[in-house]
Amino acid sequence: MRPSGRKTDQMRQVSFERNISKHAEGSCLVKFGDTHVLCTASLEEKTPPWLRNSGKGWVTAEYGMLPRATGERMKREAAAGKQGGRTQEIQRLIGRSLRAVIDLEALGERQITVDCDVIQADGGTRTAAITGGWIALHDCLKWMESRNMIKLDRVLKDHVAAISCGIFAGQPVIDLDYLEDSAAETDANFVMTGAGGIVEVQGTAEGKPFSREELLSLLDLAANGTQELVALQKQAIG
């Protein structure tokens, strides 16, 4: 039995609230159960210096956790003067995931930054950030299309969503919350497109190695879960 009482293939309740920010070109508050992440997409009419005059744009991401996103207050990384390795790794993952479904040439020489700020954490913050970040990015691109800056269907090639899966108490389960994540024998994150393509897989055994069969069972769970998330994204954007 999972601590939450969920079935092995049952995700937490997922919701998307769009237009949560007055100023951002695109924004979404995403909730995976008790994990809540505010995603905002901001447009700049310039590219990073290394892309200047290339004819290509760029999509990047930044990630952070508010001090009381967890059970005990954490120091802000800004106060420490540098980002931690975990933060850097997660924001690079978010950026790679979103760029996987963007035509950077069709975007033009512009940059979109997707900021993902964890308001409340209960496991799966990176997967929630990717899934909600796609909606914020979509709405930013829609804002651009309404101003005749781009054609949305040329720039945005597909949906992208992410979900965690793992081996908990000897069973493959989907969408781990903190209690499961902290005690899992195997912890993995899967990023997949609406067409079912795999963007990235992160998997780690905590002690006992996992088998090929267990990996495939986690992949099957993730494929079904990401398709469910894509369906919710489509419903959210109407």
UniProtKB/TrEMBL annotation:
Keywords tagged on the record: Nucleotidyltransferase, RNA-binding, rRNA processing, Transferase, tRNA processing, tRNA-binding
Keyword Cytoplasm among UniProt keywords: no
Pfam families named among the record's database cross-references: RNase_PH, RNase_PH_C
Catalysed reactions, as listed in the record: tRNA(n+1) + phosphate = tRNA(n) + a ribonucleoside 5'-diphosphate
Annotated Exoribonuclease phosphorolytic domain residues: 10-140, 160-224
Alphabetized GO MF terms: tRNA nucleotidyltransferase activity
InterPro entries recorded: ExoRNase_PH_dom1, ExoRNase_PH_dom2, ExoRNase_PH_dom2_sf, PNPase/RNase_PH_dom_sf, Ribosomal_Su5_D2-typ_SF, RNase_PH, RNase_PH_bac-type, RNase_PH_CS
EC numbers for this chain: 2.7.7.56
Binding site for phosphate: R86, G124, T125, R126
Highest taxon in the source lineage: Bacteria
NCBIfam families, A to Z: RNasePH (TIGR01966)
Function according to Swiss-Prot or TrEMBL: Phosphorolytic 3'-5' exoribonuclease that plays an important role in tRNA 3'-end maturation. Removes nucleotide residues following the 3'-CCA terminus of tRNAs; can also add nucleotides to the ends of RNA molecules by using nucleoside diphosphates as substrates, but this may not be physiologically important. Probably plays a role in initiation of 16S rRNA degradation (leading to ribosome degradation) during starvation.
Assembly mode: Homohexameric ring arranged as a trimer of dimers.
Similarity annotation: Belongs to the RNase PH family.
Name of the protein described by the UniProt record: Ribonuclease PH
Protein's organism: Rhizobium helianthi
Lineage: Bacteria, Pseudomonadati, Pseudomonadota, Alphaproteobacteria, Hyphomicrobiales
